[in-house]
Each structure stands twice: as structure tokens, then as C-alpha cells.
Design a protein that fits this description.
Blueprint (H helix, E strand, L loop, with lengths): L10 E2 L4 E2 L3 E3 L12 H14 L4 E7 L17 H16 L3 E6 L12 E2 L13 E2 L2 H20 L4 E6 L4 H6 L14 H4 L1 H14 L4 E9 L8 H14 L3 E6 L19 H8 L6 E3 L6 H9 L5 E4 L1 H5 L3 H6 L17 H5 L28 E5 L3 H13 L2 E5 L9 H4 L8 H14 L3 E3 L6 H6 L4 E4 L3 E3 L12 E3 H5 L8 E5 L3 H10 L10 H7 L25 E5 L15 H10 L3 E3 L2 E7 L2 E6 L2 E5 L3 E4 L3 E3 L4 H6 L4 E3 L11 H14 L1
Parallel strand pairs: 3-4, 3-12, 4-5, 5-8, 6-7, 8-9, 9-10, 10-11, 11-12, 13-14, 13-16, 14-15, 16-27, 18-25, 19-20, 19-25, 20-21
Antiparallel strand pairs: 1-2, 17-26, 22-23, 23-24
The structure holds NADP nicotinamide-adenine-dinucleotide phosphate (NAP) and iron/sulfur cluster.
């Protein structure tokens, strides 16, 4: 019997049935614009359909040139375009899935000079000022949406999703923030919601009754001058009457300065919004945002928050998510940790999306873990992310693998990361690897610092060195003063830290340590109500957009924290594009002080001495925490080579500069795929 009866209850839409309640939500991958991209998308979606997803929503496809998200973005305007999509729809149908094409018009978010919007107001996230659409332009836009929907039917799609949220064109028409028109598409709310209603009505007329129309409704704008709850409900009712089959939940505009999907957002933080809407509408509702495990999805459905669950990133992390849930094998799921590092951060940098915990995502046609022809005896040294990926994939392929770890547990630096408030998802990756090690019968030897002799005696055909890094110790006078601690002293050895602290180095780890030291007690990422208060979101929905006029309630830091770096420029500039601002904002709320452009002079009983703008300064502190980057750690390399052993370096042991788990896992997985 299934542990998740609500997930696996089919949903009858009248003319077609969804086999379960799990939808793979829309996400741009960058393949849409690549050479052979459609074949690669077909392989990527087919794996997810085979993995049990009932309905896939494609990445956003523009109805016309003005609606592009960026130059030459994919669009559906001609029969030639439609023919190109056939390979995708055929592949999904072959695996028993259904697929809708998302029609997305970027409006003023378009990163190109042809962008249009209800009014000529530049968005804070694009350098291009849009042209104001004339009435004739609006009519043409509606025609293009409808044309796109008809063509998608021709291409074999089961339906469309009309993207009405996240601050794109339709959303821009709906709210006064971006719509200053005085014609029949501006002014009153009735006028401002005219565009989406006409769009859905005309699309329904054009595609007939037996075609899914999902409308993604912005239920919570999270920007000033967005919609009130009453307005959102009124629009939802009109969209239902206009002929939509399903309404999907949109939370937050892209320009909102409130996180909505980052790892620090609690799981299922926004499903209460969909639940509130369920009291108002009768067609099925989809909920989304930070749902990544079957237990969470089941609870949402069982408690009546929604009829369907949409997840996008969790299917990058694990295409087999649904089948594993169906087999009650939730602990085998490779959980999306919501880091955005390989998916959204890539897309924003115009790189092809992938996944930190699953480098095969969007690379299904080139990276495969095929059974080995000749079984080898492989030693992997180090059980951090790189060593874990290398050993589990090599073993899955059929090799005999022994994993050696000097520490008492597997996980490496992830064991420190998981303790940072807001990074609790890292526990899941360690759990996943632990399960993989046992499934593929990797021999794991903990508490053993391995020597060359051990490896020689083991008769290993190959040795993979994943021994990681050692922290860099900067050459500062007084670096051995008793008040100086390394981040490992703090996070791993739990050495006591005083009330006034200087953090030296402002990379990912400097931010993590500061966040750790700025908290006491429970992480708000584990408590939805506390988290909503921290970000000033009104759960009663009396505030416009859910935030207007609400004062955030942040619990103060138990310490005074001063972050230092030698370089100029903003703090956190090197962190992920989609998450750096969140870390900066969280620390600012905790009143952490940022001090840049410094040269360290010395550390002594008085504190940290440094020079800034030509003046000598001293900051009195109780402790100085060193987070100054890392150096590769591969003590065995030379000796192994001298002994003629076949040895490979992966992860931090190879290159420590800008080391992150994404590169480590990717490099280790690719090695294990070929070894
Ligand atoms: P990092 O990102 O390279 O940062 C090292 C910091 O130390 C820099 O701010 C640098 O700033 C400073 N530094 C370098 N050499 C120094 C020296 N000789 N003396 C004094 N200061 C020095 O390294 P990390 O913080 O250890 O992070 C490692 C990797 O893990 C990074 O790739 C990071 O992206 C990833 N990570 C990311 C996150 C996250 O996204 N939240 C969290 C943890 C780790 P100045 O040169 O300006 O002084
Ligand atoms: Fe999830 Fe991170 Fe993978 Fe993106 S890169 S899918 S956020 S685990």
C-alpha cells in the first residue's frame, strides 16, 4: 500500500485524467535555444515522464518576438516552430506522460530592445526600457497568444499554461505598479484584468473543450503596489469562468526582494495561499514553492491546501521522484536542496541548466552511467561530496568500490553546511548518499586516515583521491593568537565564540559562519510562521501584495559581527546570482557590519588592526574567525604516483579555488561515468 494515497489518486479533468497529483512545473533550461536543444529537451522530459510525473509544463515559450525573455528566445508563432516541438511531445507521450506548453510573454522583463509593456516603465531587473503597447499592439498580442496555443495543439501538446504571474507581461497589466494606462486596459481593476480574461476566453474558443488550459495566477505579488487579495480572487473567478481547466499558484514577482524558492524558505511556505484560494474557486488548483519530498506533498494534499503539487527543481535533482514515492522509497530520492547553483544561476548567466546534486540533469544525451564491461577494484579516499558521488556512481555501474574516510562520518564539508540556519536541506544529500552507498554495496571504512601501504595491499586498479581542502591561513601577524579561530573550529569543533566577532573573508563560508553566529535557537527556515514574520509577509492577506505596510519582525543577533574583506565592491558579489542578495539581506537584518577595502596589520589583545583608506584602525573583538578560502589537500598524490598506481584527483583536492560542491560532484560524476 502506498504511503502517499493522496499523491497517487488520479484527477479526472472531464475530458482527460491525470494519473497522479504531481506536476513538473515550468522551468527554462537554456536548451530551448541550443543547437539540437529540442532533442535534448525531449530526452530530459522523457526521463521525467518515465519517472512517473503525470503532467509536465514546458519552459516558457514566447508567443512573439516582443515577448522574448532574451534575444532569440524560443517562440511558437509558426507551423515551422510547431513541427520542431513534435519530438518533445512524442517523447513524453511515449513514456505515458502528458505535457502542456507554457506561453510566456516577458513584457518589461524582456532582456532585449523590443520589449513591450502596458506602460513604458523600466523594471529594476532589466536594463531595457519597454515600449508602451498601443491598443492595436494589445490586440496583436492576444492574437499571438491564441495562435501560439493553437500551434501547440498542432505540435501535440495536451494543453497550455498561460503565464500570468512572476511579474511578466500579464502581471504587469494587472497592477497599478506597472500599468498607468488610461484606456480600457488601465485605470480600474476591471480594466486592468481585461487582458488575461480575454486571453483565456479566446484561447478556449480557439482550442476547443478538450485541451488543458492552466492559468498561472499571481496569488501573492510581494512587491509594493501589487494586487489585494480581493482583486486576486476576483481575477481567479473570471479566469475560471473564461474557461481555464486548472489554476496554478504564482508567488512573488522576480523583482520582489523576498525569497520564495531559496533553500532558506521553509518547505511548503506558501501553500496556505492556495488553500485560501480553494475556498473561492471550484476548478483544480496547483500549489508550488519549496515542496521537495513526498511527505510534504502528501500532507499538503491531505490537508486540502491544493489538488495538485507542482515541483520543477526536484525533478532536475531526481527524475525518478514519483516512481520512488510510489514504491515507498522516499529515502532513495535525491532531494533538491534548493541551492539554485546549477539551475537558476546557470539560466540567469545564459548557461545550460543542470543540478548540483545530479549533473545529468539537462545532459541526458551526453552523461550516462552505463554498466561496466570490466569490473574494477576502486578505492575512493574521502567521503565529501566528490568522494560520495564518485564512489556511488562507480558502484552503481558495477565496480567494486571501497570508500575510506578519516572522519567518523560521511559528508565532508556538507556536515558543516547543514548546521547553518537555512541550510538544513544539506542533511538530505548526506542521507541520499548514505542510502546509495548501501544500495550499491560500497564498502565504507570510517575513522581511517589511509596510507599508501593500505592501498597497495588492497590491490586496487584505480584510486580516486577526494581528500578535499585545507583552510587557507592568511599571513597576518598574530594569526596564532588565542582569540583566532578557523571556521572549522566554530562549525565542527564547536569552540566557544564571544559577543564581538570579526570574520575575516567574505566568501560563501564567511557568509555561512556569520549567519551561524547571528542566530540563536531555532532556524526560521523550519518554522513557516516565524519565517513569514521575519520577511514581513501578512498571512491574513489584509496587506496589499501580502506585504505593504507590514513591519518585519527579526530576532536580534546574539553577537555583534563585523565582516571583513580586502577587496572593494559589494559583499556577497561572488555568491550565487539568485541567492547572494538573500544572504546579504539576512545579515543586514541581523545588523552585521560590512567592512571592505582593508589591509590586515595584526591581531593582538586589542583586537584586529587594519588599514582602511590610508588610516590605521583597530577593532576590539573577542574572537577573529578566519574564512579566507581554501587550498587543495592531497597528501597521498605524490607517493601513489611514485608507486605506479593509477590515481585520479577530484573536487577540492584537485582545485580548491572557488571550490564548490557543484564542481566537485560534477567532476567526480563525470570521472565515475568513464572509469
Ligand atoms: P571564497 O569564496 O574563495 O572566499 C574567500 C574569502 O577570503 C574572500 O572573501 C577573500 O576576500 C578572502 N581571502 C582570500 N585570501 C585571503 C588572504 N590571504 N587573506 C585574507 N583574506 C583572504 O572561499 P570560501 O568562502 O571558503 O568558499 C569556498 C567555496 O564554497 C566558494 O566557491 C563558495 O562559493 C562555496 N560556498 C558557497 C556558499 C554559498 O553560496 N552560500 C556557502 C559556502 C561555500 P578578499 O580577497 O577580498 O579579502
Ligand atoms: Fe535543486 Fe540546487 Fe539542483 Fe537546482 S541545482 S535543482 S536548486 S539541488
Amino acid at each position: 500500500m502506498s504511503n502517499y494515497p493522496h499523491i497517487f489518486k488520479p484527477l479526472d479533468l472531464g475530458f482527460t485524467t491525470l494519473k497522479n497529483r504531481i506536476v513538473m512545473g515550468s522551468m527554462h533550461t537554456g536548451l530551448e535555444e541550443e543547437k539540437n536543444g529540442f532533442e535534448r529537451i525531449a530526452a530530459y522530459y522523457a526521463e521525467r515522464a518515465k519517472g512517473g510525473v503525470s503532467l509536465i509544463v514546458s519552459g516558457g515559450i514566447s508567443p512573439n518576438v516582443q515577448g522574448w525573455t532574451g534575444p532569440f528566445a524560443a517562440r511558437m508563432s509558426t507551423k515551422k516552430h510547431a513541427r520542431k516541438h513534435k519530438v518533445i511531445t512524442d517523447a513524453v507521450h511515449k513514456e505515458g506522460g502528458k505535457i502542456c506548453m507554457q506561453i510566456l510573454h516577458a513584457g518589461r522583463y524582456g532582456y532585449h530592445p523590443f520589449a513591450v509593456a502596458p506602460s513604458a516603465i523600466k523594471s529594476p531587473i532589466s536594463p531595457f526600457k519597454p515600449f508602451k503597447l498601443k491598443q492595436s499592439g494589445i490586440k496583436r498580442t492576444i492574437h499571438d497568444f491564441v495562435n501560439s496555443a493553437k500551434l501547440s495543439k498542432l505540435a501535440g501538446y495536451d494543453g497550455v499554461e498561460i503565464m500570468g504571474s512572476e511579474g511578466y507581461l500579464i502581471n504587469q497589466f494587472i497592477v497599478e505598479r506597472t500599468n498607468k494606462r488610461t484606456d480600457t486596459y488601465g485605470g480600474s481593476y476591471e480594466n486592468r484584468m481585461r487582458l488575461p480574461i480575454e486571453l483565456v476566453k479566446q484561447t478556449r474558443e480557439a482550442v476547443g473543450k478538450e485541451f488543458i488550459i492552466i492559468y498561472r495566477l499571481s496569488m501573492l505579488d510581494l512587491v509594493e503596489k501589487g494586487s489585494t487579495w480581493q482583486e486576486v480572487v476576483a481575477l481567479g473567478k473570471e479566469i475560471e469562468n473564461a474557461g481555464a481547466t486548472i489554476i496554478n499558484t504564482g508567488i512573488g514577482w522576480h523583482e520582489a526582494r523576498i525569497p520564495t524558492i531559496a533553500t532558506s524558505v521553509p518547505r511548503a511556505a506558501f501553500t496556505w495561499v492556495t488553500k485560501k484560494m480553494k475556498e473561492e474557486l471550484s476548478i483544480p488548483l496547483v500549489t508550488s514553492n519549496r515542496i521537495n519530498m513526498p511527505e510534504t506533498a502528501e500532507k499538503i494534499l491531505a490537508e486540502g491546501h491544493a489538488d495538485l503539487i507542482s515541483m520543477a527543481r526536484p525533478f532536475l535533482a531526481d527524475p525518478e521522484w514519483v516512481n520512488k514515492a510510489a514504491d515507498n522509497k522516499s529515502e532513495e530520492i535525491n532531494t533538491c536542496i534548493a541551492c539554485n547553483q546549477a539551475c537558476l544561476d546557470h539560466v540567469f548567466k545564459r548557461k545550460i541548466a543542470s543540478c548540483l546534486v545530479n549533473p545529468r540533469a539537462c545532459h541526458e544525451t551526453e552523461l550516462n552511467y552505463l554498466p561496466v564491461k570490466k569490473k574494477k577494484n576502486i578505492a575512493v579516499i574521502g567521503a565529501g561530496p566528490a568522494g560520495l558521488a564518485a564512489s556511488t556512481i562507480a558502484a552503481q555501474r558495477g565496480h567494486q568500490v571501497t570508500l575510506f574516510e578519516a572522519d567518523k562520518e560521511i559528508g565532508g564539508q556538507f556536515n558543516m553546511a547543514k548546521q547553518i540556519p537555512g541550510k538544513e536541506e544539506f542533511y538530505e544529500t548526506i542521507r541520499y548518499f548514505k542510502k546509495q552507498l548501501s544500495l550499491y554495496k560500497v564498502t565504507v571504512t570510517l575513522n581511517k586516515r589511509i596510507e599508501v601501504q593500505d592501498l597497495k595491499h588492497g590491490n586496487f586498479d584505480e584510486v580516486i583521491l577526494a581528500t578535499g581542502i585545507k583552510p587557507r591561513t592568511p599571513k597576518i601577524e598574530g594569526i596564532d593568537h588565542p582569540m583566532v579561530l578557523s571556521y572549522i573550529d566554530v562549525l565542527k569543533h564547536k569552540k566557544p565564540v564571544g559577543k564581538r566577532v570579526a570574520v575575516i573573508g567574505a566568501g560563501g563560508i564567511g557568509f555561512d559562519v556569520s549567519e551561524y553566529l547571528a542566530h540563536k535557537g531555532e532556524s526560521t527556515s523550519l518554522n513557516i510562521d516565524a519565517w513569514l514574520k521575519e520577511w514581513g509577509i501578512d498571512k491574513t492577506m489584509q496587506a496589499r501584495s501580502g506585504i505593504q505596510g507590514v513591519i518585519a519582525e527579526v530576532s536580534p543577533s546574539p553577537r555583534e559581527i563585523f565582516m571583513f574583506k580586502r577587496s572593494k565592491g559589494k559583499f556577497g558579489g561572488n555568491l550565487g546570482k539568485t541567492t547572494g542578495w538573500i544572504h546579504r539581506s539576512t545579515l543586514k537584518k541581523k545588523k552585521v557590519q560590512f567592512i571592505n577595502n582593508v589591509q590586515y596589520t595584526k591581531i593582538d589583545d586589542e583586537g584586529v588592526h587594519y588599514v582602511q583608506d590610508g588610516s590605521e584602525k583597530v577593532l576590539a573583538v573577542d574572537n577573529v574567525i578566519i574564512c579566507a578560502g581554501q587550498l587543495p589537500f592531497s597528501p597521498l598524490l605524490a607517493a601513489l604516483k611514485e608507486n605506479g598506481m593509477s590515481v585520479h584527483l577530484v573536487g577540492g583536492a584537485d582545485v580548491a579555488a572557488e571550490l564548490d560542491a557543484k564542481r566537485a560532484i560534477d567532476q567526480a560524476s563525470r570521472l565515475a561515468a568513464t572509469i
